[in-house]
Amino acid sequence: MGKRRQSRVRAVLAAFALGAAVGGTAYAAVHDAAPGELGAAPRAWPSDTSLAAPLERPVLLVFVHPRCPCTRATMTELARLAPRLDGRVDVRVAAYRPASSSSDWAEGRVLDVARSLRDVALIDDVAGTEARRFDALTSGTALLYSARGELLFRGGITPGRGHEGDSAGGDAIVRLAGAERHGGGGVVEARVFGCSLRDRTAGGGGIWGWN
Question: Across-strand partners of 210?
């Protein structure tokens, strides 16, 4: 192979490598910015849920897949959010677990953070039963219900996929908890970032019957 041809080959390979690097960076940026699917959570507290209905104060439900890496950021933000709610909200974390798994299947950082939070209840959501009842489709979905069982907010509490920091969702929850509405104002929504709760992408199965 002549020197001129070798130079052309090296130039092509260098251009290809540069294009792949740029393309990979662009893909990562798009992936980080792409929200998950936001389900149509019931406007009123569902009658078929086994979870206790709101009593005297609003309830914040956060549905998580313990093996979703994106959800680590959600739990970090929940740890920051809980003190801002100042005990005005009953906070519960529902963690998905396959029906055929043992109780330690979900152990890891996500649930460790949940357990460390004061006044936050951890719910073992076997087979994702409660996630289905509340139509939570993405890990990290947060639902705020008023003390009367009316849906006030649905969405996420992180600014991006796996990213920590202030978010429109977190600010909305604090605002709604401090000035609770009783109907007529509509439901506030925010984008949610996390692995799907109805496919295999989070590892270990999703809520729609996969173990």
Answer: none
Measured distance CA(78)–CA(156) in Å, rounded? 10
- Would residue 162 count as lying in a domain? yes
Contact 35, 193 (CB under 8 A): yes
**Residues 137, 69 share a domain:** yes
Question: 92 and 19 in one domain?
Answer: no
Q: Burial, 125: exposed, middle or buried (Cβ in 10 Å; 0-12, 13-18, 19+)?
A: buried
Same domain, 78 and 125: yes
What pLDDT score does 89 carry? 95
Domain span at residue 136 reads 59-189
Is 121 in the same domain as 170?
yes
Query: For residue range 38-71, what is the model confidence (pLDDT) as tens digits?
Result: 999 999 999 999 999 999 999 999 999 998 888 9
Please say whether the beta carbons of 26 and 104 come within 8 A. Answer: no
Edge-to-edge strands of the sheet including 151-155?
120-126, 90-97, 59-64, 141-145, 151-155, 188-189
Contact predicate 145/153, CB 8 Å: no
